[in-house]
Write a structure and sequence with these properties.
The complex is a heterotrimer of chains A (410), B (82) and C (360). Chain A is built from 12 helices and 15 strands. By secondary structure, chain A is of the alpha/beta class. In chain A, strands 1, 2, 5, 6, 7, 8, 9, 10, 11, 14 and 15 form an 11-stranded mixed β-sheet that branches. A two-stranded antiparallel ribbon of chain A has the order 3-4. Chain A has a two-stranded antiparallel sheet with strand order 12-13. The longest helix of chain A has 17 residues. The radius of gyration of chain A is 20 Å and the shape is globular. Chain B is mainly α. Chain B has one domain: Orthogonal Bundle (Non-ribosomal Peptide Synthetase Peptidyl Carrier Protein, Chain A), CATH 1.10.1200.10. In chain B, 61% of the residues lie in helices and 0% in strands. Chain C has 360 residues and is α/β, with parallel strands linked by helices. Chain C has 2 domains: 225 residues, Peroxisomal Thiolase, Chain A, domain 1; 123 residues, Peroxisomal Thiolase, Chain A, domain 1 (3-Layer(aba) Sandwich). Chain C has 13 helices and 11 strands. Chain C is globular. The chains are: A alpha/beta (410), B mainly alpha (82), C alpha/beta (360). The interface between A and C is large, with 90 and 83 residues.
Chain lengths: 410, 82, 360
Amino acid sequence: MSGPDGRGTRRVAVTGLGPVSNIGTGVREFGSGLRAGLVGYSKIRSFDPTGFPHAYAGEVPDFDPGPTLRRLEAGRWGRSGQFAAVAARLAVEDAGIAIDRRDARRVAVVMGTTSGESRLVDQLAAQAVAAGGYAGFDTNELTKLPAARLANAASEELGAAGLSVTLATACSASNYAIGYGFDLVAVGAADVVIAGGADSVCRWAHAGFYRLGALSEDRCSPFDRDRTGILTAEGGVALTLEAMDRAHARGARVYAEVFGYGLNCDARHMVTPNADSIAECMRLAHANAGVKPQEIDYICAHGTGTAINDQAEAQAVRQVFGANPPPMSSIKSMLGHTMGAASGFGAVAAVLAIAEGFLPPTANWSIPDPRFDWLDPVPNQSRPATVRVAQNNGFAFGGNNCITVFGALP
Amino acid sequence: MIETSVQKEDLREIVAEVLEVDTDELTDTDDFVEVYEADSLRAIEILARIEKKYKVEIPQSELAKMLNLDAVCEVVARYVGT
Amino acid sequence: MSADLVVTGRGVVCAAGIGTAAMTAALADGARPAPDVTALYSDAMPQPTGYALVDFDVRALLGRKGTTFLDRATGLALVAFGEALAEAGLVIDDESRTRVGIALGTTVGSLRSSADYSLETLVADRPYLVNPALFPNTVMNCASGQAAIRYGLRGVNSTVATGRVGFLGALGYAANVLRRGYASAMLVGAVEEFTPHTAWTHHRLRRPGQPGEAAAVFVLEPRANAVRAGRRVLAELAAIEEGYHPGDDPAERGALLAGCLSGVLAEAGAEPGQVQFAATTEAWNADDELIGRAAVAALPSARPVRVRDALGDCGAAAGALQFAALLDAGGRGTGVLAGWSPEGAFGAAVLRGRDRAEVA
């Protein structure tokens, strides 16, 4: 039993990272992509964008789950489930964990998502149009549709028998998953939790964000004065969270420690972020993680690249950190907005910043926004830095804010 | 003259529905945000419905001007033409 | 369970009506014919009946403001949230609003909202001529986000998409939040809407019974808070556990679930023979039947609690309805809720009725 300090009775280590992204798959490729400021979006290929004025997205090119998967029959699962399963496999391999039947019950999976198997929704809609009614829905898509199957795909792939839960808290969902996973390990409900998220590029989200005026034409430029919005993107990501004593006992490499997280809800508007509420979420995260603002060396931003998000996020940082906030960069400048996976990729970036001593850049940045010209967005080039504590922001439709805090081992 | 007034009443209906008020509650000059609790999403919805109804494209930059019903009529008239 | 969690309020919306009494009356009848749904939608339906709350009128219930663009699932959930808060007498003010959270179970949110959004891109003059105001409905956390706005809840807010074990997933999540002290009370529930989309899903996947819809929400909080505030304890959540069964052997899955049940009973300090009511997932197929029988084989005096014959197949909300039925039926005894999904997720919870709960 722990109080609201959130650190719980057991410390929680990050021992494995499994990114499947448009700038690289696996921790090595992804990490060098971050360092190089690689941009992973391009002209849409997964659906026909004819008629859309904007036609760019961050698809994972030529994604093939086959070579990585060991147990999962990929054909029985949707694209987002496949992302989740591959990410989970990579995270477990990176951690050097073998899951056997004896300890399978102690391994849980928590995955976050915005739209689950959104590409199947596109297919169902097309079937309904073709058939002139919903009677045209095909059983293949319907069977694979439930969002639960993102976590389930990962559990199935790993042979993990602990709880298998998908959290659908939109664009902060991976942080929710990491937070829940952290708790499960901290209180002893699990020894290992594979936590992350997945989403797929789809037609309807592209249309929706375009219609809201939130979709950029071909580039994402967070924190730049002339930023024009997001690019939808996709991928899967997983972190291996493990009881610290267990990790030490088996001589595992520990990237970082999960210090804790904070979550709250704006409860004001479904799509417009609220700076005060975000600031409050930062304070909650700091309190739960047992850190002070001045101890934080790097903020991995939510940084969607919309006028309103970046303004609210910067304002909240100013409220909490005062005149000298730490550098804050947005990796969405490189990946686009991977929705439910976004804060999971952010967590990997934050953890790598700690473990490898560099700050990922904000790509496409050229002109400071006069409303927050004090901000250091780590423009365009990564740079070496000592990061002891990193904060990873995640905000979402529905006002679902969740911020995770990671730290270096003493 | 008759045509523009009909158009205004059509617009009033669209706006009233999006702002969740009766058409007779929606005046020509009251500010959508101040009086009817509009927000950016509802403003875009109004724009979208107008575009659909009149089959025109109105840039989102015009939203800043569409603060009340009269202003909406003005903007729409420029794009729908006469 | 170390945090000693109790239920102090419930809100139920289902085909039988709004409020727990309507559900109780419907369940007392055992089976109940499904209402005529032909007037509900203009789309072709697989059959003329279904367990929908046919006269549900969100605007009449919640007012005009903020209800025009709501999808059906969100509307149902909002009403259930309101009912649960009212029964518990939980007042949301500036002091409590950051400490009352939400965990809501779902399968895919509102399938109608997302699928029709996609459909609109295919049939509109131009693919981007979609309704901006409907876009928030396409995200799966719409109902919980809207509930937060309507009731001013700024605490933890989570949507748990575990499908057929949607309610158990949300219950486990909420229990963790309370155990960790992130909130002082959780509104925990699940929702599923009835639309042409869900009706056709049910039909195409050849599921038994008829499709239904429901939202059921419960106030869950540490006993100390309830006692301090003088709120009536309806029951105690004595234990909950979740797991996953990789592979698809139903016999193995049934044994695992039976083991899970005996585990939670042990944690709750209850003997299997004391279990008076058992609500288990109502079968979609022969495998489910087998799993269900194996799960409760060791509970000799447990009476089954079923909701499908009276209220339809309510997907993620089925477990929440069963939980409400357990609160009703098991008011003076011990009940278990056990569920599993076709993929292999499972969970079990022990509910101790109020007489036992009050003296515990």
